[in-house]
Design brief:
Layout: E1 3-14, E2 17-23, E3 26-28, E4 32-36, H1 43-50, E5 58-63, E6 66-67, H2 73-78, E7 80-83, H3 95-105, H4 114-120, H5 136-148, E8 154-158, H6 166-183, E9 186-191, H7 194-197, E10 203-208, E11 211-217, H8 218-226, E12 228-233, H9 236-245, E13 250-252, E14 257-260, H10 266-275, E15 280-286, H11 290-298
Parallel strand pairs: 4-9, 4-10, 7-8, 8-9
Antiparallel strand pairs: 1-2, 1-3, 1-5, 5-6, 10-11, 12-14, 12-15, 13-14
Helix pairs in contact: 5-6
Bound molecules: adenosine-5'-triphosphate.
Adenosine-5'-triphosphate is lined by residues 14, 17, 19, 37, 39-45, 159, 192.
């Protein structure tokens, strides 16, 4: 597979604190990659590193196949647009003037394509209105428009729907889908809301405490959510040992109940448990929600 971004054992420490702790992720070309994790998991840190705003403490990454230590890395970065944390816009300027400013910053020879970008993000009719009078959603779209100047084919968006109302969320979602489908732009989008990402992502990376705990495609996520069984046994401690040996994901609910997140050979599991004097009382197939899958990967409260 062709990858736009790959990170290899990437770490970033702030004094003794590891914000990224050996993170390895792979963003395929053409993907909408949902980068999901709780607040503080390390999403913005990763984005700041790949944008060149900070240096890794150890490990490496490649952008378009070029290593971060490569002197020519700047060339790869030119193919990338990003909105990190809040969009960097001039509030006293109109949408058009904000874009013109970005053309100048990038040293582009003309303002060609400016109207197209404004239209693409739905801000072509904002005329003389200054950005400070825009809604949060319009500002976010202006931030994306600025990131699109220079025609990047990789767009990085840090929590783009944070704080938006439902209409604003729909507009951003539709814009991202349009950019991906019509302009073949690969998108990396971070969020702590899996449900929102599930409406557009083709691939996912789940991050917890600075590490990727699972990377999978949308189809795999869908399958994983379907394949969940609820099992009732005499001792979930024994069940956990057996599931560990079988390398299956699970979540212990009580002393006698657990979820198993994989396609399980039930006969094999029951026999292994019987060998250890653990009785099986019931096995039930369960359609797992995205939400509980998320919790099984990154644990507890999703937004702490
Ligand atoms: N400059 C810094 N100095 C010290 N600690 C930092 C610094 N930047 C980030 N951190 C810490 O690193 C951890 C990861 O932060 P990061 O912003 O990457 O998380 P996040 O997943 O993007 O969360 P959020 O959704 O809240 O932005 C947090 O615990 C944060 O407090």
């Amino acid at each position: 597979m062709d990858y736009i971004l790959r990170t290899n054992d990437l770490s970033k420490s702030y004094r003794d604190f590891k914000a990224l702790d050996g993170l390895s992720m792979n963003v395929p070309r053409g993907a909408i990659y949902g980068f999901v994790g709780k607040n503080g998991a390390g999403k913005t840190t990763l984005i700041r590193l790949i944008c060149g705003l900070q240096e890794p403490t150890s490990g490496s990454y490649t952008l378009y196949g070029r290593e971060n230590a490569d002197r020519e890395m700047r060339k790869s970065r030119r193919r990338m647009g990003a909105v990190v944390e809040t969009p960097s816009i001039y509030l006293d300027m109109t949408a058009e003037d904000n874009l013109r400013q970005q053309y100048r910053i990038l040293g582009l020879p003309s303002f060609d394509g400016l109207e197209d970008v404004l239209k693409l993000v739905g801000l072509e009719n904002t005329g003389k209105k200054k950005a400070k009078h825009f809604s949060l959603g319009m500002r976010q779209r202006l931030g994306i428009a600025i990131a699109l100047v220079g025609d990047p084919d990789f767009l990085v968006l840090d929590e783009p729907v944070n704080g938006l109302d439902p209409q604003g969320i729909i507009e951003i979602r539709e814009l991202i889908l349009r950019l991906n489908h019509e302009r073949q732009i690969t998108v990396l989008i971070s969020s702590h809301i899996l449900d929102e990402l599930s409406r557009l992502a083709t691939h996912y990376g789940f991050i917890d405490s600075g590490r990727i705990v699972r990377e999978l495609s949308a189809e795999e996520l869908e399958a994983a959510c379907r394949k969940c069984i609820r099992i009732e046994v005499s001792n979930t401690g024994t069940l956990a040992c057996v599931l560990d040996e079988m390398k299956l994901d699970y979540k212990i609910l009580t002393d006698t109940e657990a979820y198993v997140y994989a396609k399980v050979n039930v006969t094999e599991l029951v026999l292994a448990l019987a060998e250890r004097d653990c009785e099986v009382f019931s096995v039930q197939e369960k359609e797992e929600s995205l939400e509980s899958y998320y919790v099984s990967l990154v644990g507890g409260g999703k937004n702490e």
